[in-house]
Design a protein that fits this description.
The protein is mainly alpha-helical. It folds into 2 domains: about 30 residues; about 80 residues, Flavocytochrome C3, Chain A (Flavocytochrome C3, Chain A, domain 2, Orthogonal Bundle). The chain is about 25% helix and about 0% strand. The chain contains 3 helices and no strands. The longest helix has 27 residues. The mean pLDDT is about 80.
Length: about 150
């Protein structure tokens, strides 16, 4: 009986928290990619975004930011057997491809031991590196990168 009461109280609490979060997102003007459609309703497919043609590296906005990908990667295969990124960005191929070379840091394990091959921690490129498209920001952003690090 006690477990049943606790279960009911937990369910009501979770429901109240979900309703509060939903009201807060509507009051802040933040909208999901689905728009105003509820999850149980069909929504319109978002407009396809256009990727820039492969070009110059994109400037970084903060110290140690992973480089952004200036091209489309949606059909790239990255799994345990294959990594399409390496066909252009490996140390062997980057010159011929005119691509940015993989950083030396990608050949170190978590204890900074140098490895002969890319570390398993860095092999899945798109967990840190992301492509850019011509899309407006989803939320207002007033971030400004620093221009210099000053010692005090």
């Amino acid at each position: 009986m006690m477990i049943k009461k606790l279960s009911i109280i937990a369910s009501l609490t979770l429901g109240l928290l979900a309703a509060t979060a939903s009201m807060q997102s509507h009051s802040t003007g933040v909208e999901s990619l689905r728009g105003a459609s509820d999850l149980d309703q069909d929504s319109m497919a978002p407009e396809n975004k256009k990727y820039a043609k492969d070009g110059q590296p994109i400037a970084r906005d903060y110290v140690q930011q992973p480089p952004l990908i200036p091209h489309k990667v949606d059909r790239y295969t990255i799994n345990l057997k294959s990594n399409k990124c390496l066909s252009c960005h490996s140390w062997k191929n980057y010159r011929e491809a005119g691509a940015t070379k993989i950083s030396q840091t990608h050949f170190e394990d978590r204890d900074a031991h140098v490895l002969a091959n890319i570390s398993g921690l860095r092999y899945f490129c798109t967990q840190c590196h992301v492509p850019q498209v011509n899309a407006p920001a989803l939320v207002e952003n007033n971030f400004k990168p620093i221009t210099a690090i000053s010692g005090q």
